[in-house]
Target: YdcF family protein
Amino acid sequence: MRLKKLFRYFLFIILFLVSIIFLLDFYISQKTSSSIYYDYQDLPHTPVGVVLGTSKYIKKGGINEFYKNRIDGAIDLYWLGKVDYLLLSGDNSKFNYNEPIMMRRDLLKANIPNSAIVLDYAGFRTLDSIIRANKVFDADNFTIITQEFHCERALFIAQYQGIKAQCFAVPSPNKMKLVRIREFFARISVFLDLFILHKEPKFLGPMIPIINSNQPTLTESEK
Model:
């Protein structure tokens, strides 16, 4: 009988935790849905587009579709005049692995001018990328460029920090099961980071405004 009671308590705890995970996931999705755009025509202009980094290649070889679609989306937004500058935020913590540099190379191949590209080498996590865009690069109204599920988490961070942002959701690959499962845990982590641990980016440093009196918004002729 005692074992049965322990099993019931254990089962109850598991069900409770699973319910919390699903409720948190739903809450983040609902809270950020109004700031996510899927159509270029509907997207309002902002001075800065923040491209969230990821690996260009998958472990088995070949191009990572998450990466490709973010880069393609950034290129389209720039040439359509939806953003004037592209802030490339990614990981640069390992030797021979530099997400911002890789992204810049591909943007330059698409004839995006170097003057419209800004690199953030300390975007180790989504939290770092979003907060640094505001506190380091002085972007107070920007467009995040990533997949829908990632948009939701990034916007949740921005909203908590009082940062004005919107997100352009680029297409996601067809195979998303494992990624979606990882996202459940990523959302738990970001909730703990924001509400319990009050985490800040790993690095902040002095402010380097993307747009200032010496660097005006690009005109159409300069693009």
